[in-house]
Protein: Porphobilinogen deaminase
Amino acid sequence: MKPYLTIGTRGSRLALIQTRLAAERLQQAGFEITIKTILTEGDRKQHLSLRGTAGVGLFVREIERALLAGEIDLAVHSLKDLPVDLAPGLQLAAYLRREDPREALLTARGSDPVLRPGAVIGTSSLRRVVQLQTLYPAYQYREIRGNIDTRIRKMDQGEYDALVLALAGIKRLGAEERVGRIYSLDECLPAAGQGIIAVQVRADFSLQSRLYGALNDRAAELAARAERQFLKRLGGGCRLPIGAFAESGPDGRLAMRGMVADSAGTRLLRHHMNGSDAAPEELGAALAEWFLEKGIVDWC
Structure:
């Protein structure tokens, strides 16, 4: 008899696409799968800002509660939505292959990706704003809420001239034709974990090894561990705009970049380090220490 698993996820189109990616892999590995959608606080309260501490955990708390209560067996998340400190009794069991982590500029259909001065660009991320406004100060950056489909609709209705969104989500939704340009990692460093789908389970979950074997991508796991340790070490209750990206090389080394800015974007630091892929957390912590030694705690 095949083991039966219930997967919990948000109900947005992107969340369901991501969950089905995991579900299909698990079905191929011999599991029977049911998907249960869960409405999160972030989905209900569209008026809340996602910036700073207000946005932490908004899209995962209800799913984690269902997991702890045994209503679901595992949860599928966008890794960048998960706080670095998980709820007690829960852990990450696998990381799916990373999609393109870069940021994309989306424009209205048929519009020129070269925007006019004063163009209004919508994004929910202060991290994106502080990086892009240094390169493109002639644009206005305004906060936007809603899932990707909602944001695109708001742009098409004229509320925004363009949007900056994670390219990973755009690709998974099949909306690449809306992309006006893709920002390089030198221009805009992504959020820690951006583009990675993570699977969360209870600590006592009995099928972890089978789950790991069916779903886990080693390169994504190493990057996730380094980036989340970087974020954790920079924590301490201070929510500055932070970017991080790590990738494995063919020589058994990890290359990692980090970015930290103040909330106004007047001070912005970037740095990179290399380390062994046998110790991704050590690399993330070492890179964080470099920023801490530069006095970023005084920016909070």
About this structure: The chain has a mean pLDDT of 92.
